[in-house]
Amino acid sequence: MIVPIAILGSGKGSNCRAILQHIRDGKLSAEVKVVISDVLGAPILDIAREFGVPNTYLPPGRFRTRLEPAAEAELVEMLQEAKVELVVLAGFMRVLKEQMLSAFPRRIINIHPSLLPKFPGLEAWKQALVGGEKVTGVTVHFVDEQIDHGDVIAQRAVPVLSGDTPETLHARIQTVEHILYPEALENVCQQLQP
Ligand code: GRF
Backbone phi, then psi, for 138, in 5-degree steps? Predict the structure, then answer.
């Protein structure tokens, strides 16, 4: 079965690209029905276009870290209309609330650039560097009502090397993300098979 999914993101969309490429290469049994961004003109929307995937800007409303309730209701409606089974967050910078969580229980997945529960929150690679960690990593997890929290689907370690800057460490983490996220999604899709 090909699982219909949606991807939500606010930024550059490199994970979105990795997912779309894995699908194109026949390595992920999903179809991206729609890519949605809360940022007008975000590069992730261009990537969707490049792959011929429907994409849309969702005006987020007046809050900074979450969607306005009317916007979240619109999001639920769009996703239900597109009949998506999984909602994949790929750099989506807003916290999803009750409306989304109850419409898609255990069906929203996120990727975070640390070995959770270590370093939730913003710029986790910087937190690892400042904390003097020798190893950090990547976590794919189900989304719940807490930030960067929820059952872990997959994790992979990434070494912190001496001389790393935030940029070099983040780049190494992202290389791993682009492999781990499609792999983890494929496992979830296999488990959704009837
Ligand atoms: C990734 O580092 C991901 O772990 C975090 O946001 C970033 C998104 O990057 N949640 P991109 O837009 O996929 O390049």
Answer: -135, 140
